[in-house]
């Protein structure tokens, strides 16, 4: 049986299954699904919980014996098995055995990363899903994110104007956990009062995370002086973390910019091109400014430089990634920077 996370609480309120399998890489949805499972199980008498983290070194024979020993000390309990990667042969056999257990006093919860179709159709996985309830927690893509945000705002009873929603879509674009954290903060501050984009920016201004998104728009607008000041300030605060985050933001935005510039070069109108590549309304100005300065070839060259930054961050290239990012931002802003 497959149950969407949004329907999980209602389903578990009817009956607790023999076990559950939570599959996927979306951290927020996974943690919320596990919280729902734990709360529903506790309400039905599963008062204790054991958590087993599975990795390459796990001894499944010892794990099986340990799980059996734990079950001697409580009448009803949850046993969670968290796999960091697709189960190996021993892990698959272990899970098949767990799925055949008739112990009604133990609720088995298996947590797995995203599985490929071939793995989902394998013998061990089919055996698991024949007995256990499947809860998919898949990554919410760019197209689905606006719907997720609308549902979350309704659930939290938050009223945010159109510009504010666009701001959230721009900042997070699929990062559910970070978005949820900001929504929680907004709810504490404003409750059910209407919230504007300016109020959202004021709340977020104290967190450098959101400046990383603004710095790209400044670069697209050609404001090299502010780009340089902001980047130096971010480096002084938490350079390593900000470099990795900004690298990801730049990869997304430069790829989107390349698609936009290509459509414009092909003769598409700006309105149609912006719509085709899903540029949020409040970012259309910076994107169009960048397109006036940069050709398709220029943007492809910037993406190649970004690949070097990624290698430097991983230690593959012996270059200063902070300096490389600074050079890239200034080149986006229109400055000629020596390598």
TrEMBL record:
- Catalytic activity as recorded in UniProt: DNA(n) + a 2'-deoxyribonucleoside 5'-triphosphate = DNA(n+1) + diphosphate
Every copy of the DNA polymerase III delta N-terminal domain together lies at 21-124
- SUPFAM superfamilies in the record, alphabetically? P-loop containing nucleoside triphosphate hydrolases, post-AAA+ oligomerization domain-like
Residues forming the DNA polymerase III delta subunit-like C-terminal domain are: 212-331
The UniProt entry's GO biological process terms, in alphabetical order, are: DNA-templated DNA replication
Name a GO CC annotation attached to this entry.
DNA polymerase III complex
**Which Pfam families does this one have?**
DNA_pol3_delta, DNA_pol3_delta_C
The UniProt record lists the EC number as 2.7.7.7
Q: Keyword Transferase, does the record have it?
A: yes
Q: Which family does it belong to?
A: Belongs to the DNA polymerase HolA subunit family.
Its protein name is: DNA polymerase III subunit delta
Tell me the organism.
Permianibacter aggregans
